[in-house]
């Protein structure tokens, strides 16, 4: 899970992920509505570039992304077997 109010798209997660779960991309307009003022300011300042989860099923929960993220924007969360 990526905290959209914290992520600044620095790509540390992309660099350390052995299974290529993350990519850096532009946060879609529809995903910006719930951001805090600070999150909107950070997003604007960084051109809305953030880490996006491109391959969630590839995640092996190694935790390297959590450790590497300088903004502490990533947490690992269990998914229910029936969740997409």
Explain how this protein is built.
With 84 residues, the protein is of the alpha+beta class. It has a domain at 12-68. The chain contains 3 helices and 2 strands. It has helices at 12-16, 37-45, 64-68, and strands at residues 22-26, 49-53. A two-stranded antiparallel sheet has the order 1-2. It is globular. The two termini are 14 Å apart. The model has no long low-confidence stretch (mean pLDDT 93).
Termini gap:
14 Å
The global form is globular
Helical coverage, percent range: 10-25%
For the sheet with most strands, the description reads:
2 strands, antiparallel
- Identify the strand order in the major beta sheet: 1-2
How many distinct beta strands? 2
The parts where pLDDT drops under 50 for at least 5 residues are none
What structural class do the secondary elements suggest?
Answer: alpha+beta
Helical segment count: 3
Identify the notable features of this structure and list them briefly.
84 residues, alpha+beta, two-stranded antiparallel sheet, 2 strands, globular
Describe how the helices and strands are arranged:
Blueprint: H1 12-16, E1 22-26, H2 37-45, E2 49-53, H3 64-68
Antiparallel strand pairs: 1-2
Give a nutshell description of this structure.
With 84 residues, the protein is α+β, with helices and mostly antiparallel strands. The chain has a domain at 12-68.
């Amino acid at each position: 899970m990526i905290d959209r109010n914290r992520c600044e798209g620095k790509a540390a997660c992309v660099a350390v992920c052995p299974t290529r779960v993350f990519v850096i991309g532009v946060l879609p307009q529809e995903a910006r509505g719930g951001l805090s003022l600070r999150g909107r300011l950070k997003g604007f300042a960084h051109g809305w570039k953030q880490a996006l989860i491109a391959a969630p099923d590839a995640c092996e929960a190694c935790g390297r992304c959590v450790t590497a993220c300088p903004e502490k924007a990533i947490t690992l969360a269990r998914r229910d077997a029936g969740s997409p």
